[in-house]
Amino acid sequence: SSGGTPSITLTNRLALELALEHALDLLTLNSSDDMRIRCFIPSILIGLGKDHEAYGVIKYLLTNGDDIIEDKRGEHAHNLVCLVREKNEQDVSEPLEALDLREDSDVGIVFDLALIKFCMYHDTRNMQTLNRGEIPNPDISTAVAGFFDLSKDWMDIDASNLFLQTKQLLSCVHHLNKHILPNLMDPHRMLCLNPEGYAKGSCNEAALVIQRSAVWWKVNDFTHGFLRSFISGMDSQLVPFPLNQTERQMNIATIRGNVFERMNPRRAVELLGLDDDDDDDY
Questions:
Q1: Domains in the chain: how many in total?
Q2: Lowest mean pLDDT: which of 132-136, 201-205, 258-262?
Q3: Is residue 173 within 8 Å of 117, Cβ to Cβ?
Q4: Which of 65, 124, 153, 183 could disulfide-pair with 159, CB 3.0 to 4.6 Å?
């Protein structure tokens, strides 16, 4: 969208396009995706200004979980590659309940989703305001909406609800990892880290998310300004958000060690349903 499209040079755009192709090639060659390349794709698409396509990928990733059941990874990798190559677009304005946010959702993807929702809110609010005040002709309105990459029924979109969804998603980000939002005010330390692994909710995870996605919040004054305002008043800005409390049912025999390398050991024990006395067996 116009709001989500960064002002990037041709060289940087080419680099992003090459990075996207490389990521898709890696998913094709290594469908198990042990490096979690899938989590980088939404951020790359956002950098290319393809917010709606990024949303389609995010929706697929969230509704299909973290792909920890190995025998399904190949299918998911193939579906993701097809989603991107076919430029599948989804309705960004749909409610968060359609996305199945979970305790084990990738926090970086949720952070990317918050940016997409806010950019959609910004574009929708501006165009609706413009239409009410200066563009009475519906044909012109539709044409202008197309220029801003908004759907033809954008006048029916509830901009205030998109704004609320943005705050809900940022609240979810803070719930999943307490280190991300506070460190965005001064990200220098996080940008200098080079973590080899991470546990969910850790500083290392926060560093990876900030290094991957924070730049797209800063390319436009309105997104950067909103984020700074949200963080500075975070105690009053945090709002409840829909979170699916049903834990994923996992078969111990299908869980691989690479999952636990990035998962807090206590969390792994909880997900497996093991007693404290059983910890030493795994």
A1: 2
A2: 258-262
A3: no
A4: 124
Same domain, 39 and 151: yes
pTM of the model: 0.77
C-alpha separations of 146 from 1, 55, 125 in Å: 10, 18, 15
pLDDT of residue 235 exceeding 80: yes
Same domain, 91 and 231: yes
Q: Examine residue 5 and state whether it is found in any structural domain, yes or no.
A: no
Asked whether the beta carbons of 168 and 96 are under 8 A apart, the reply is yes
* Separation of CA 114 from chain center: 7
Q: Confirm whether 115 is domain-assigned.
A: yes
The reply to whether 125 and 265 lie within a common domain is: no
Q: What is the pLDDT of residue 185?
A: 87
SS3 percent helix, strand, coil of the chain, rounded to 5, is 65, 0, 35
Identify whether residues 77 and 207 lie together within a single domain. Answer: yes
Q: Which whole number is the average pLDDT over 33-46?
A: 90
Measured CA to CA, the distance from residue 156 to residue 131 in angstroms comes to 12
**One domain, residues 67 and 30:** yes
- Domain match, 113 and 85 both: yes
H-run or E-run covering 259 = helix 257-261
Look at residue 171 in the predicted model and tell me its pLDDT. 96
> 135 and 68, same structural domain?
yes
pLDDT at 34 over 90: no
Question: What DSSP line would sit under 98-133, residue for residue?
Answer: GG--BTTS-HHHHHHHHHHHHHHHHHHHHHHHHHHH
Q: What is the mean pLDDT of residues 27-44?
A: 88
Parent domain of 200: 10-248
Mean pLDDT across 141-166: 71
1 occurs within a structural domain: no
Query: Residues 200, 173: contact at Cβ < 8 Å?
Result: no
The residue among 248 and 206 whose pLDDT is bigger is 206
